[in-house]
């Protein structure tokens, strides 16, 4: 008999994970990890929007806030933000979310950290700038575009050497795929990036990945410095 997630959680609360995807593509990254773990998932209340300092660098005097994903594992304290969540899930069940070989695991952890610090901030800023400030901050838009172009080129080069970033599907690939899934929000085209396009096509060929990415089917809610909300591009 197949249980609904809430029924499975009541039957085995020690394995249940409460989850809210937030309002950015990072919710898809967490959904992908949860799909690999195959543990019961129940709803969790969202957290308040936050301003990420790394994103604010691109926004000048117009910082904007995003609602990040949040999980609570087996009734524990909430863990906020994709990087912290993926690290916690990988620590709990590394064999399902990281490569087994130490060298490949180190590569996956390196890419996870790089995506958090170098790739996601210009992507997040691009979403906000394209939606709420397309005419008012042209220099900021161009800066984010140039930075993003250079950093995406690094990922494209890495994927030319293999089908994943670290030898096997890992949390680093999940974070990357979640953002590629919403490339339209960012203004990122994959047509001229064959390695990234092939990476996304391989992921979309797996039904569990398509289902998990449905968590980011709606554009994110963006809150500007005056508290006004808008929808992502």
Task: Give structural notes.
The protein has helices spanning 5-11, 26-37, 53-56, 82-92, 94-97, 102-132, 138-159, 171-181, 183-186, 194-204, 207-213; strands at residues 17-20, 41-43, 65-66, 70-73, 79-80, 221-223, 229-231. The chain is built from eleven helices and seven strands. Helix 6 (102-132) packs antiparallel against helix 7. The strands form two sheets. It has a four-stranded mixed β-sheet with strand order 2-1-4-5. Strands 3-6-7 form a three-stranded antiparallel β-sheet, with helices on one face. 42% of the residues are buried. The longest helix is centred in the middle third of the chain and has 31 residues, at 102-132. The protein is of the alpha+beta class and 233 residues long. Helix content is 53%, strand content 9%. The termini are far apart. Helix 2 (26-37) links the parallel strand 1 and strand 2. The protein has a domain at 99-206: Glutathione S-transferase Yfyf (Class Pi), Chain A, domain 2, CATH 1.20.1050.
């Amino acid at each position: 008999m197949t249980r609904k997630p809430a029924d499975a959680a009541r039957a085995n609360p020690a394995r249940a994970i409460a989850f809210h995807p937030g309002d950015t593509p990072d919710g898809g990254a967490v959904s992908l990890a949860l799909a690999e773990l195959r543990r019961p998932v129940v709803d969790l209340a969202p957290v308040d929007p936050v301003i990420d300092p790394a994103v604010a660098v691109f926004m000048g005097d117009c910082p904007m806030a995003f609602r990040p994903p949040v999980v609570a594992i087996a009734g524990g304290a909430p863990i906020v933000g994709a990087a912290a969540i993926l690290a916690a899930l990988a620590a709990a069940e590394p064999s399902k979310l990281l490569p087994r070989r130490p060298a490949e695991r180190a590569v996956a952890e390196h890419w996870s950290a790089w995506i958090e610090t170098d790739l996601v901030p210009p992507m997040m800023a691009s979403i906000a700038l394209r939606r709420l400030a397309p005419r008012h901050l042209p220099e900021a838009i161009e800066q984010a575009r140039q930075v993003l172009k250079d950093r995406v080129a690094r990922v494209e080069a890495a994927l030319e050497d293999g089908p994943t970033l670290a030898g096997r599907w890992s949390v680093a690939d999940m974070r990357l795929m979640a953002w590629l899934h919403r490339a339209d929000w960012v203004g990122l085209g994959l047509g001229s990036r064959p390695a990234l396009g092939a990476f996304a096509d391989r992921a979309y060929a797996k039904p569990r990945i398509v289902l998990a990415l449905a968590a980011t089917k709606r554009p994110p809610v963006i809150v500007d410095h005056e508290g006004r909300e808008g929808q992502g591009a």
